[in-house]
């Protein structure tokens, strides 16, 4: 959730009901076939992460449909926050093809 939305919700000036904020989204920065490959890639990506994303753990999730491994920026979050994280990843050149994805019962495997 963005800081401005958090402030608006605290003040009661937002038109968004906090109970309806969708919190089942991921900021996906990679998708690979194996867990070791995901771990290696996440460790490599961690070395050059943008300043705005420092301190946010990278997650590795096994997807249910394709059985691949998604590397994400953080755990599942709001749709707005997932899109913000992907915007930062793309704009900084860190991961030019980052995208937001709704959680489809992914299984968390590891955090880095």
Explained architecture:
It is a single chain. The protein is α+β, with helices and mostly antiparallel strands and 112 residues long. The protein has one domain (23-111): 2-Layer Sandwich (Alpha-Beta Plaits), CATH 3.30.70. The protein is built from 3 helices and 5 strands; from the N terminus they run H-E-H-E-E-H-E-E. Strands 4-1-3-2-5 form a 5-stranded antiparallel sheet. Strand 2 (58-62) and strand 3 form a beta hairpin. The radius of gyration is 15 Å and the shape is globular. The model has no long low-confidence stretch (mean pLDDT 88).
Give keywords:
five-stranded antiparallel β-sheet; alpha+beta; 112 residues; Alpha-Beta Plaits; 30% helix; 5 strands
Order of helices and strands: HEHEEHEE
Poorly predicted ranges (pLDDT <50, ≥5 residues)?
none
User: So what's the CATH class?
Assistant: Alpha Beta
Mean pLDDT reading: 88
* Main structural class: alpha+beta
What's the total helix number?
A: 3
Number of domains: 1
Shape estimate: globular
The largest β sheet comes out as: 5 strands, antiparallel
CATH topology: Alpha-Beta Plaits
The total strand number stands at 5
**End-to-end Cα distance:** 21 Å
From the coordinates shown, what is the CATH architecture? 2-Layer Sandwich
Cross-sheet strand order for the largest sheet: 4-1-3-2-5
Helical content stands at: 25-40%
State which percent range the strand residues make up: 15-25%
Based on CA atoms alone, the radius of gyration comes out at 15 Å
